[in-house]
Specification:
1-phosphatidylinositol binding; elongated; ANTH_dom; 2 strands; Clathrin assembly protein; about 65% helix; SNARE binding; mainly alpha; about 0% strand; ENTH
Length: about 350
C-alpha cells in the first residue's frame, strides 16, 4: 500500500511539474524550455527506468543553439538535482548529466562545470550529496547509496573535463589514443603531467569503490549507469596509459619530490584492479604490466635520488667540519662573529 501511495504521489508531482513547465514554456524562453525538457527526462514514474532516448536527445539539442540555451539546460538540471529528495529522480538527473558530459556538444559541456561544480565563494554544489538519504524502503536505501557514489564520480569527471582537454569526449569504447592527445601530453611540464595523472587515478579509484549490486540487481537505472561508467573507465585507462608511457621517458628528469609523488600515485592505481561490477576485460594485462614496470623504475629513481641527497648532506657536513677546524682557537688575533662583537684572547 505504501509503495502504491508513493507511486501516486510521484505521478502527481510529475503532472504538476510538467503542467507548470509547459505553461511557462509558452513564452518560448530558453529557461522555460530547458525546465520542461529536464522534468520530462527525470520523472518519478516509472522509477526503475532510465530516461528515454528521445528525452536525452531533447537535452542534447540545447548544445546546438546559443550559449544561453546551453547554460539554461545545465542550470535546469542542477536545480532539479538540488531540489529533489527522491533517489530515482536524483539518479535520473545524474544519468542525464552523464549523457550530456559524454555526448554533448562543446558549448553544452562547457556550461556544465560552472553550474554543477563547487562554487569558490559558497563551496556548494548540487553534486555534493553525501547526506542524501531516503529510508522509505530497502530498495530506496540501496539506490540512495548509488546516488551518493554516482554524484561523487560525476564531480570527478567534470573536474577532469576542465583539466584534461581530451577527457571525457564522446564515448569511444576501447579506442586507441589519437596523435593529438599524445602530442599535447608530450608538451606538458612534469608537474602538470603528474597533476593530470592524479586526476585520472582519482577517477579510477572512485570507480573501484562502487556500491554492492545485490540490493539493486535488475535495476535498469543502475544497469545504464554501469554501462556509461565502464566506457569512461576504459577511456580513463587509455589516458593513463599515454601518461605512463610519457613518464617512462622522463624518469631521469624528475625531481625527488615529483618521483615520490609519482610512486604514491602508481601505488594507488595498483590498488584499483578489482571491480566487483566489471564482467569484461579492461584495456589488457599490458596496461597493468606497464604501470607496475613504471612503479618499479620510479621506486629505483626515488632510492637513487634519496641516496644522492644523503651523500650531498654528508659532504656538506664534512666540508663544514673541516672549515671549523681552520679557525685559530686560542690565538691572540681578534675573531669577528656575526653579532659584530669582537672577542680577544
Amino acid at each position: 500500500m505504501g509503495r502504491k501511495l508513493r507511486s501516486l504521489v510521484g505521478a502527481l508531482k510529475d503532472t504538476a511539474s510538467l503542467s507548470k513547465a509547459a505553461a511557462t514554456a509558452a513564452a518560448l524562453s530558453p529557461s522555460s524550455a530547458a525546465q520542461l525538457a529536464v522534468v520530462r527526462a527525470t520523472t518519478h514514474h516509472p522509477a526503475d527506468k532510465p530516461p528515454r532516448p528521445r528525452h536525452i536527445q531533447a537535452l542534447l539539442s540545447f548544445g546546438h543553439g546559443s550559449r544561453l540555451s546551453a547554460a539554461s539546460a545545465a542550470g535546469a538540471l542542477a536545480s532539479r538535482l538540488r531540489s529533489t529528495g527522491d533517489p530515482a529522480v536524483a539518479f535520473k538527473c545524474l544519468l542525464a548529466l552523464h549523457h550530456l558530459l559524454a555526448r554533448g556538444a562543446f558549448i553544452l559541456r562547457d556550461q556544465l562545470p560552472p553550474a554543477l561544480l563547487r562554487h569558490p565563494a559558497s563551496g556548494r554544489s548540487p553534486l555534493v550529496l553525501a547526506a542524501f538519504r531516503h529510508g522509505s524502503s530497502a530498495a530506496s536505501w540501496a539506490l540512495a547509496s548509488w546516488v551518493r557514489w554516482y554524484a561523487r564520480l560525476l564531480e570527478l569527471l567534470l573536474s577532469a573535463s576542465v583539466l584534461l582537454v581530451s577527457f571525457p569526449t564522446a564515448h569511444r569504447p576501447y579506442a586507441k589514443p589519437d596523435d593529438d592527445d599524445q602530442e599535447r601530453v608530450t608538451s606538458l611540464l612534469n608537474q602538470d603531467l603528474i597533476s593530470e595523472l592524479d586526476a585520472l587515478v582519482g577517477i579510477v579509484e572512485e570507480m573501484a569503490g562502487v556500491p554492492e549490486m545485490v540490493a539493486v540487481e535488475g535495476s535498469r537505472l543502475v544497469a545504464e549507469a554501469v554501462r556509461l561508467v565502464e566506457a569512461d573507465r576504459v577511456a580513463a585507462e587509455h589516458e593513463i596509459e599515454i601518461r605512463v608511457r610519457e613518464m617512462v621517458e622522463r624518469l631521469g628528469s624528475l625531481r625527488f619530490a615529483d618521483s615520490v609523488e609519482l610512486v604514491c600515485l602508481l601505488r594507488r592505481l595498483e590498488n584499483c584492479t578489482y571491480r566487483p561490477w566489471d564482467r569484461r576485460p579492461t584495456v589488457g594485462d599490458w596496461f597493468w604490466a606497464g604501470v607496475r614496470d613504471l612503479m618499479d623504475r620510479a621506486e629505483e629513481v626515488v632510492l637513487r635520488k634519496e641516496e644522492e641527497e644523503r651523500r650531498v648532506k654528508r659532504e656538506k657536513a664534512s666540508a663544514s667540519a673541516r672549515a671549523s677546524d681552520r679557525i685559530p682557537v686560542g690565538s691572540t688575533q681578534a675573531v669577528r662573529f656575526g653579532s659584530t662583537r669582537w672577542a680577544d684572547r
